[in-house]
């Protein structure tokens, strides 16, 4: 990696593909823009299909790049967006703490992931808009319990005032990192994920020609 | 008749402002201008017919009765509220400055690169010729007021401070003949160019006007041909409605058709079944999307406008259960809504004789001034035109959106014929067309281009037969992508996706759009017959 440090796109050791899902209007796009650009846009338009952003951060001394696919919330887009679940190692299911319906949909989103995503995907439940505590419709404990029962990570965050936004992504990435490290130790002799096309992104860093080198680096 | 004359004054107000106001005005230009003016205002017969055509758009509401009092009675809220505005908006000359905007932007619109060249050369031949010939006209200052009155209509009868101050300017150059120097004066050339643009615009306007008014049956083929290159903004509403087949080409049927359609919309909207068994999920989705429709345009922030859009979208969704409401359709409704809304305001101008009406644009219009009756007419027209558009792309919004998938794959095939290197680069970077082109199809590039550009683009789409939203759009998307081809070839996966997610089009003008449309046209002609193996 050292010889490539001047090229930012190579300046990471791990690339994790993450999907951001949840009902329309819960604030997925703003969570993403807060995390990747520290921006919040009151005038944001609805997401059509899928949008993309990245941020590289350090986990356990390793440079980890999160490649995050932000999806449209509406049901009609499910066929398109679910294609992006493939190859994702992490997912954030977002609901709005002031909208019961958006919380009630969480189990539906969970089912979506079970159907279309890899079995060992790390999932975090995020209650967004925690700044709207006075309008709260979903009690923290209830969501927390649900998360525990379903082995999901859990946070409440606010894209508006930045509360817990970094923390929720960081927590997810750290868990992915740990899961994959463990997984790779256990299955060391197995060939790593095949070079993928399109939406499917392998767990190992890109570009592919660097793969063997990187693998040697981390294991 | 006097009233009808004013229809034309829309165009000339702006000309006048531009030449006399901004550029200081020289006798030569004035005379050229006046000459052109007298040429263009002479055919009064078609104008009355033109108003007839417009009367069909707004029917009994605005035109059916030529009596202004009748109008204010039939539409009291607008008439009443329009007048106090006069005092709010300051001096009258402000209004002239504002009224320039639509024409200026149109000047750009008509000005394709090839045409500009032609204009420049034509200009020399033409205007130098006119120079001396017109001088005598310009010197006859005593004629001025009458010309002015005739040309500009009653709107200008009260001499505004600005016009007064310009009188001396107009006479000065008359005494100092310097024809040779003038032809190389850069400022002067610019002015000439402007005049030419405006004249061109005017010629275009007259062509449209003639087409829309001079026969009892509008020639649709001819209208398509003209509209392909852009429609004058004050004739856009009627042209779009005809091109979409909403307004019949047979003028004797227009009023009746509109009446029926508008009533049908009203009945549908007010039907108890629609309101009692409201589909909560659909309504909720529409509600949150309307709130974030064109969030930076003030008009769409008004509760009245949002309510109208909700009604239109919800009604459409219920009447089209196979697709229902899909995010992005809220974008597609806006061009119709704002074109019909501004057209309505423009139609009031000759009737209410209020120059302030031209001050209204999407950024300062207060929709509360518009009566619910008028709003419902605008809603109905919007609804029907949106329906026509969506009919042509139904497959884009039904389950699994097969129309979009096919369009995206057609786009990829097309690019592989036009720019195989780009395809190779995309393949190397693992770029899938669906990753960026899905939105291009779902929102017809409305997320990539400003609404003004989209409106110009739709002039052409609506002139295509069949309508261009499905097939021709693919060629436009190809032209759009190829525009960035050399940039994209330098980028990696992430850079490509981020670039195409937010393509640099904020500085684009109608010229860019027209170039893109021309390229799309060339490719569609080239590959149309090859489409069998595209698929």
TrEMBL record, chain A:
Q: Where in the cell is it found?
A: Golgi apparatus membrane
Entry similarity comment: Belongs to the small GTPase superfamily. Rab family.
Record's CDD domains?
Rab11_like
The record's PANTHER family line, in alphabetical order, gives: DRAB11-RELATED
Q: Which GO terms describe its cellular component?
A: cytosol; endosome; Golgi membrane
Check the record and name the InterPro entries matching this protein: P-loop_NTPase (IPR027417), Rab_GTPases_membrane_traffic (IPR050209), Small_GTP-bd (IPR005225), Small_GTPase (IPR001806)
The name this protein carries in UniProt is Ras-domain-containing protein
The GO terms this record gives for MF are: GTP binding; GTPase activity
**Polar residues bias (residue ranges):** 193-205
**Is-annotated flag, keyword Cell membrane?**
no
Region annotated Disordered, chain positions: 186-219
GO BP terms: namely: early endosome to Golgi transport; exocytosis
Q: Does the keyword Nucleotide-binding apply?
A: yes
Look up and give the membrane topology term. Lipid-anchor
Q: Which keywords annotate this record? A: GTP-binding, Lipoprotein, Membrane, Nucleotide-binding, Prenylation
UniProtKB/TrEMBL annotation, chain B:
Where are the residues of the annotated region Disordered? Answer: 64-114
SMART domains reported in the protein's UniProt record:
TBC (SM00164)
GO MF entries: 14-3-3 protein binding; GTPase activator activity
Q: What InterPro entries does this protein's entry cite?
A: Rab-GAP-TBC_dom, Rab-GAP_TBC_sf
Q: Where is the Rab-GAP TBC domain?
A: 230-465
Quick one: a GO cellular component term? Golgi stack
Compositionally biased spans, kind Polar residues: 64-77, 89-114
For whether the record's keyword set contains Transferase, the answer is: no
Location of this chain's protein in the cell: Golgi apparatus, Golgi stack
Q: Which domain of life is it from?
A: Eukaryota
Q: Which UniProt keywords apply?
A: GTPase activation
Protein name per the record: RabGAP/TBC
Query: What organism is listed for this UniProt entry?
Result: Candida tenuis (strain ATCC 10573 / BCRC 21748 / CBS 615 / JCM 9827 / NBRC 10315 / NRRL Y-1498 / VKM Y-70)
């Amino acid at each position: 990696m050292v010889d490539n440090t001047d090229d930012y796109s190579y300046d990471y050791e791990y690339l994790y593909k993450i999907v951001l899902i949840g009902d329309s209007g819960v604030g997925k796009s703003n969570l993403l823009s807060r995390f990747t650009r520290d921006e919040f846009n009151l005038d944001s338009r609805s997401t059509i299909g899928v949008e993309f952003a990245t941020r590289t951060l350090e986990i356990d001394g390793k440079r980890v790049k999160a490649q995050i696919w932000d999806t449209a919330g509406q049901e009609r887009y499910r066929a398109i967006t679910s294609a992006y679940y493939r190859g994702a190692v992490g997912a954030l299911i977002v609901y709005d703490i002031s909208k019961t319906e958006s919380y009630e949909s969480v189990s539906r989103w969970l089912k979506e992931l079970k159907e279309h995503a890899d079995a060992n995907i790390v999932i975090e439940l995020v209650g967004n808009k925690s700044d709207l505590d006075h309008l709260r419709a979903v009690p923290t404990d209830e969501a927390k319990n649900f998360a525990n029962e379903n082995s999901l990570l859990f946070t409440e965050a606010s894209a508006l005032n930045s509360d817990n936004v970094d923390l929720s992504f960081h927590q997810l990435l750290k868990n992915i990192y740990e899961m994959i490290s463990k997984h790779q130790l256990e299955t060391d002799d197995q060939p790593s994920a095949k070079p993928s096309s399109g939406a499917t992104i392998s767990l190992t860093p890109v570009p592919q020609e660097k793969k063997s080198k990187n693998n040697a680096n981390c294991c | 008749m006097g009233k009808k004359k004013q229809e034309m004054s829309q165009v000339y107000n702006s000309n006048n402002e531009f030449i006399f106001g901004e550029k200081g005005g020289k006798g030569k230009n004035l005379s050229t201008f006046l000459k052109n003016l007298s040429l263009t205002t002479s055919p009064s017969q078609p104008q009355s017919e033109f108003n007839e055509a417009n009367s069909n758009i707004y029917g009994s509401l605005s035109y059916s009765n030529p009596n202004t009092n009748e109008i204010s009675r039939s539409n009291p809220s607008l008439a009443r509220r329009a007048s106090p505005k006069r005092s709010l908006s300051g001096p009258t000359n402000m209004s002239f400055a504002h009224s320039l905007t639509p024409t200026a932007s149109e000047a750009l619109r008509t000005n394709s690169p090839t045409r500009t060249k032609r204009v420049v050369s034509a200009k020399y031949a033409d205007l130098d010729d006119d120079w001396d010939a017109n001088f005598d006209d310009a010197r006859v200052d005593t004629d001025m007021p009458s010309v002015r009155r005739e040309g500009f209509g009653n709107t200008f009868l009260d001499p505004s401070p600005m016009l007064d101050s310009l009188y001396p300017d107009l006479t000065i150059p008359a005494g100092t003949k310097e024809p040779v120097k003038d032809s190389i004066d850069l400022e002067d050339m610019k002015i000439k160019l402007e005049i030419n643009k405006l004249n061109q615009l005017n010629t275009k306007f007259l062509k449209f006007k003639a087409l829309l008014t001079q026969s009892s049956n509008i020639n649709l083929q001819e209208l398509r041909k003209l509209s392909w290159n852009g429609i004058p903004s004050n004739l856009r509403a009627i042209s779009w409605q005809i091109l979409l087949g909403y307004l019949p080409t047979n003028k004797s049927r227009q009023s009746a058709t509109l009446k029926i359609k508008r009533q049908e919309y009203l009945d549908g909207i007010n039907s108890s079944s629609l309101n009692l068994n409201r589909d909560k999920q659909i309504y909720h989705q529409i509600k949150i999307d309307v709130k974030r429709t064109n969030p930076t345009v003030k008009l769409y922030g008004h509760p009245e406008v949002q309510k109208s859009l909700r009604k239109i979208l919800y009604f459409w969704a219920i009447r089209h259960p196979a697709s229902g409401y899909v995010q992005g359709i809220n974008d597609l409704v806006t061009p119709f809504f704002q074109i019909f809304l501004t057209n309505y305001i423009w139609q009031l101008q000759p009737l209410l004789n209020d120059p302030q009406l031209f001050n209204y644009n999407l950024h300062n219009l207060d929709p509360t001034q518009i009566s619910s009756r008028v709003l419902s007419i605008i809603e109905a027209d919007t609804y029907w035109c949106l329906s026509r558009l969506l009919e042509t792309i139904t497959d884009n919004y039904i389950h699994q959106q097969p129309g979009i998938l096919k369009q995206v794959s057609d786009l990829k095939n097309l690019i592989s014929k036009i720019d195989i290197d780009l395809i190779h680069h995309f393949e190397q970077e693992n770029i899938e067309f669906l990753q960026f082109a899905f939105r291009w199809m779902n929102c017809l590039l409305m997320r990539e281009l400003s609404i003004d550009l989209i409106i110009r683009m739709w002039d052409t789409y609506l002139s295509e037969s069949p309508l261009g939203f499905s097939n021709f759009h693919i060629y436009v998307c190809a032209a759009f992508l190829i525009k960035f081809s050399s940039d994209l070839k330098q980028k990696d996966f992430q850079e490509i996706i981020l670039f195409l997610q937010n393509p640099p089009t904020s500085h684009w003008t109608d010229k860019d759009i027209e170039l893109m449309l021309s390229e799309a046209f060339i490719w569609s002609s080239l590959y149309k017959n090859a489409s069998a193996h595209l698929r």
